[in-house]
Amino acid sequence: MINSSFYKEKFILQLSMAASVVFTVIEVVMAIFTNSQAVLMDAIIDSIELIMIIFSLRLLPLLYKPTNEKRPYGYNQAESLVVLIKSFMMLAVTVGLIINNVQMLLEGGNHIAYGLVAGFEIFAAVVGIIIILIMEKSNKHLNSPLVDAEITVWKIDIIASCGLGIAFLVPVVIKTPFTAAIAPYLDQTVAIILSLILVQQPIRYIITTFRDMFLFAPEAETMDRIKELAEPILVFHEVDTTCYDVIRTGRKLWVSIYFEPKSETLSVLRISRIQKEIDDALTKEFDDLYLELLPDIY
Description:
Structural class: mainly alpha
Order of helices and strands: HHHHHHHHEEHE
Helix content: over 70%
Largest sheet: 3 strands, mixed
Number of strands: 3
Distance between the termini: 39 Å
Shape: elongated
Strand content: 5-15%
Radius of gyration: 24 Å
Oligomer: single chain
């Protein structure tokens, strides 16, 4: 059944989509008018982001469907696929922009209306901060990779806009022979530096998402935290752990803990009580989680 979390998540994605439409249109116009490669970089990345938000909104109702025998993991793998495609597209575009800007640097750079671009980027950063505050407030009690990815992209956009705004104010405020000499190369240099910073995020998402899609164990930090929360309960009940089998599909963690009792017998009722205690401890930190406590019989 679709619950309130679905409507909150849908609202955040729709807000991000509406803002992306407005920003993309304005950035395209600004890029054409000012001939700024940095603004063009923002426009292209926002265009990709807009396409992926549309896919995310289409996928969202499926993520709230219950699991069944035909789809034991539901549609969570599809969520990982959307994040993976989005990350690859951002990576490809960012690398392409770096190559294009290097070529422009070698050809002598170009002059742009630095004051106009600086004002626009600072305005974009302020609006972006307002949007993020709204999104984070709505996302407070959600566990959504789609929304987390959206918020991350907006944060990157804000950092990029602040960097561009400050950099393009330099030749406007500081008028020296040195700033006049570097002015034709400033736009491309800033675009390359920002691209090199931004390219780290899609790479990180690609690595994490590949782990999820191939059902590898999540990163060491997550595994260690699960063990930290579960082990004291198992030790208290005199149960020896033999193996933690943990996978992540999209937003959901599937945790299987295999154990051996220290005594020859252990009642089903007690196993159920131990599992509930562990489940209560884990769900305080991991919102969407399925736990199994299984005897290691061999």
